[in-house]
Give the backbone structure.
Amino acid sequence: MIFWITRMMKMKLMNKAYWERRYIEGSDFWNAKGITTPIKEYLNQLTDKHIRILIPGLGHGYELMYLKEQGFANVVGLDLTDLAARETLEKFPLFPIDEVVLGDFFQHEGQYDLILEHTFFCSLPIALRPKYVAKMKELLAVNGRLVGVLFDCEFDSVDPPFGGSLSEYKKLFCVSDLNIEILEPCYNSIKPRKDREVFIKIVKQQHD
Ligand SMILES: C[S@@+](CC[C@H](N)C(=O)[O-])C[C@H]1O[C@@H](n2cnc3c(N)ncnc32)[C@H](O)[C@@H]1O
């Protein structure tokens, strides 16, 4: 009971200041220090460099940097704070900081062909998960897809990242106009996340 009360209290504090504090304290344990294999290998298959891509909860922005290096023209990185992205800019002067938009995912407007998920879902309060799915559906263009990885394990902490399971995700993404094309154990996770991730590809369908 106390665990849940503490968790609820913490959740209210997960605003811009909360995330900036985590970056400043160096408690950003999710930082993979580079683009991870599942995302990189997925992006390497894409041929159309003009698709509209959104990276919510951008953090250090390694995916954004990679996409720009590969010549993708329409990429937006979205985050409540650009603190982590500015850290990346210090190390990599060619980091595309101009493509970073400051704002709340739930207030963001736009239409995207591809939305990349990488440790953003797990950063949100668990109660917001259905809202996350609804917002993704709104932001995806018809035939647009949400692609990335989700944790398939639990974490013993009152702070994010928060875990989950494949069966939970199956129910969560089972909404009208969204088709779960891939939701399965991830075979090419980075070593520390091996056997602890699922790969997802959720496609928005045409409304009948
Ligand atoms: C766990 S970190 C992941 C960062 C990055 N995706 C990575 O893999 O390193 C979550 C990020 O989401 C951002 N964030 C949390 N809630 C957000 C929201 N409602 N809108 C936009 N960004 C948010 C935080 O500021 C933080 O940078």
